[in-house]
Amino acid sequence: MGIFSLFSNDLAIDLGTANTLIWVKSKGVVLSEPSIVAFDKNTKKIIAIGNDAREMQGKTHRDLQVVRPMRDGVIADFEIAEGMLRAFIKKIMNSWIPSRRIVISVPSGITEVEKRAVRDSGEHAGAKEVYLVAEPMAAAIGIGLSVDAPVGDMIIDIGGGTTEIAVIALSGIVQEESIRIAGDELNNAIMQHFKKNHNLLIGERTAEIIKCEVGSAVPLKQELVVRVKGRDLVGGLPTTVEASSVEIREALEEPISSIVEAVKATLERTPPELAADILDRGIMLTGGGALLKGLDTRIRKETNLPVHVAEDPLTAVVRGTGAIMENLHHYSKVILKGKKY
Fold it and tell me: Most CB atoms within 10 A, among 47, 85, 138, 323?
């Protein structure tokens, strides 16, 4: 342990479509903010990131633009994503100490080109070494599963841009399904529902709030009603309508069904010995989508398997990525190949 190891800012990053979480060696999770950036259109200068940028969403003038540089779990705007990553790291660090190593979690269905973009972003943000790990593997480690055991575990990680479904055994992913239907798609379904059925235009943020407050995957014991503010598409004026949790559930039916079908398809391809393990151990739900009311019940009903929502599902991926960072040697098998040393 040299003097420099005391100052090595080894980081683990869950660079998500909806939220970015950063874990620092021996400190744990130090940042959890939305993956949103506000920048000046003329100069491309970043004005705000994270929570500050979210406050500006849908409220900017013509010179300001608020964007989410991540789409479907991958980088959509390279320059802005890099700026965001650099700004987040600066927010938690003394900028004069470079990060030695960064482990970043990525969707399991990511292409080689997309992997390169994430690696380059990490390097440009100041890292000397960048390692990538698949999100479902990181989530499994984060919730304390023994991924290196000869036992099958199934994990469903529902983020903002992607739903990652994986069967894990012996430090590898045996079966996987990565679909680009997740939290964003649920928000979009709510926005379209109000447009079509209420002639009401609502923003992404409003849709997110509705999903969290009254969204559900199964009938609730007590159905809820929510007041929704937006712009009337006919008269063009601001207005308020009431909506019940029943109609929101109907609006969410299509994306939820797609997720359930993907889970079933993965189970159908799982080797019988591992399928027997899953029958005993059940399915683990992680990611923000795991918090949707009744989703565990819906998957349980459709698969006849036990389904458990992980404790603190939002931080499962970053906690696992952090554990990998703490012990890169032990978890070397789960690092995605093509890494840079």
Answer: 138
